[in-house]
Design brief:
Order of helices and strands: HHH
Structural class: mainly alpha
Distance between the termini: 42 Å
Largest sheet: none
Number of helices: 3
């Protein structure tokens, strides 16, 4: 396995972890919506759903790139990995704050 493929697989794994964290966020937001019934809660649920859709789509995209015969290389994989790490940290912080 080449180095760039390893980075695409790391991107895929981070996106899957983001999907898991976002699913937890959605559960918290849905529970809050049922008890509070505010438009802010609806916005949070929509926020979670849209990011969940994005990350599910990215898992498929990363899978296609990792198995592609084209060499997309580290020039593209490393910035995407940095963005995925940043996104996951943000979702993690948001989940921790929302859980409390």
């Amino acid at each position: 396995m080449s180095v760039h493929t390893s980075f695409w697989i790391a991107n895929m794994i981070l996106s899957v972890v983001s999907v898991i964290v976002l699913s937890g966020l959605l559960l918290v937001y849905a529970k809050n919506f049922r008890s509070i019934k505010s438009t802010f809660s609806v916005g949070l649920v929509l926020f979670g759903v849209l990011f969940l859709i994005q990350n599910i789509a990215f898992v498929g995209l990363y899978m296609a790139i990792a198995t592609s015969e084209k060499n997309y290389g580290l020039d593209m994989a490393m910035p995407m990995l940095a963005l995925n790490v940043t996104q996951l940290v943000g979702f993690g912080v948001l989940f921790r704050i929302s859980w409390q």
